[in-house]
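If it is no trouble, can you show me the amino acids of a protein and the C-alpha cells describing how it folds?
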Amino acid sequence: MTGWRSIGRVSWGWFLAATAVLALLPLGFDTNTMTVLLIWALFALSLGMMWGFAGLLSFGHSAYFGLGAYAYAISAVNMGESTVPLLLAVLVPAACAAVVGAMMFYGRISDVYMGVITLVFTLILFKFMSATAGDAYRIGDARLGGFNGIPGFPTLNLPGFPDVSLYGVPTYYVCAAALLLCYLGCRWILARSFGRVLVGIRENEARCELMGYDVPLYKTAIFTISAGMAGLAGCLFANWAEIVTPGLFSLGQAAEVLIWVIVGGLGTLIGPILGAMALGMVKLLLGQQTLIDNSLVLGAILIVVVLALPRGVLPTLQRVLGWRARSRRSSAKAAGARRRLGGTSGEAS
C-alpha cells in the first residue's frame, strides 16, 4: 500500500480525470482513430519507461512490438480464440528480451553497442519475416506470408466465448484499459525500491554497483518488462489492423517511437503518451495527402524540439509552470511580509 500512496493524491486526480475522458470519448469521436492512438501511446510508454528512468536506449524497440503482433496472429490462427494468444503476445517478446538483455548487460557492453545490437536485432527480424513467402514457411496452420504478412486471423473475443468478438468500441475500451493499467503499473514500479534503483543506475551506475546492487539484473528486468508492454501494444495493433506484416519491424517504426518519446519528454510517463498521441495524429492527418512526406515533417519536429526544448515538451512545461508557481508564492510571501511590517510600524507609531 505504501507504493500506491506514494503515487500522490494529485496524480490520482489526474488519473481519474483521464479515465473519465477516455470513457466518454466514444460518445463524440471516431473510436477507430482513437484506438490506434492509444496503442501507439502504450508503445511509447514502454520505451519511455526504460529509457527515461533506467537510461537504456533501444534503437530496435519495434522488434518486440512486431513480435507481440506476430505471436498473437500465429497463435490465434492455430487456436481460434484470443485469450492464450493475448498472453503469448506479452510473454514471447518478454522472453526474447530477457535472453537478449541478459547477454548484453551481463556481457558489460557499452551503451553504443547496445544501440547497435538492438537495431540489428530488429533488422534481422524484418529481413527474415520478409523472406517467409511460400508454403514452406508456416507454423501450424498459420502461413507467415512474407511481405504480405498474416491477414484474417481471429481478433479479440470475450474470454471463454470465442464467438463473441470484441470489435469497434469494445476494442477501444480494451486498449484504453491496457494503457491505464500499464501506466499504473509503471507508477507503482517507480514508487518502489526497484524503481529508485533504476533511477540510481541512470544517474550513476558505478555507485549502484558499489552499494551492492546487481545492476545487470535490474537492467535485464526493466528491459524485459518494457518488451512485454511493447508486445501487448503490438498485439492490440494487430487486432486493430487485422493484419500483421514485416513493416512492424521496420526502421521507420523504430524511429517513430524514438521521436514520440523525445518530443513528449524523457523522465516522465505522461510525456511519451502525449507525444505519441499528438505526433500520431499528425501522422494520420499527413497520410491523407501526398504533397509532403510524413518522415520530413516528423524529422523537422524532432529537430525543432531538440534545439528549442531539449528536455521535451512536457518537462519544459512543468519547469515553466513550476517556476511561475514559485514566483507567485515568493510574491505572496513578500506581500505578506510588507503587510506585517506596515502593521508593526502603525502599532509603533
